[in-house]
Amino acid sequence: MDHLRKLQKDVANDVCTNMMVENSLKNDIKQTLNKRLEADELTKLRNEALEHFHKVLAASMEELYNEEKLESKLEELRQLKKDQQRFCTEDTKKGWRPSGNVNQDIKGPRCNALLAHMEDLEDIRNDLEQQIATKRTQLQEYIKQINQRMAS
């Protein structure tokens, strides 16, 4: 949870320095030209705006953490990870794979798929052979007819 809060703080700082600086400087310059504010006053106003942004962001994030019960969920996740590591030996580090070798474990389903594909290809081959045989007989009949006409 501390890591998440640190990440939130870093993001807020980045947003403030990268996004708000440009717009706030433009507004501060306009106010300076209109009201002739001192540089110290401008810096003070900018810092107040940034502090307000940090407070609002922190409150929103804290509300989100509480609503979603993130802290308990993250703690539960940490505990599950520790339990997994505690019970994990060299034999069980294989994970879901029975043998630990991915290629060997997916061999069965892959073989079934390949066998089905080979059957489909065999059917296509048989159909094509039948078409070839039919075309050959037709061709032979045409040749006979041509030979008969040429002989007559």
UniProtKB/TrEMBL annotation:
It is found in: Chromosome, Centromere, Kinetochore; Nucleus. GO terms for biological process: cell division. Keywords: Cell cycle, Cell division, Centromere, Chromosome, Coiled coil, Kinetochore, Mitosis, Nucleus. Residues 111-145 form a coiled coil. The keyword Acetylation does not apply. GO terms for cellular component: MIS12/MIND type complex; nucleus. Its main location: nucleus. It comes from the Eukaryota. This is Uncharacterized protein. It comes from Ditylenchus dipsaci.
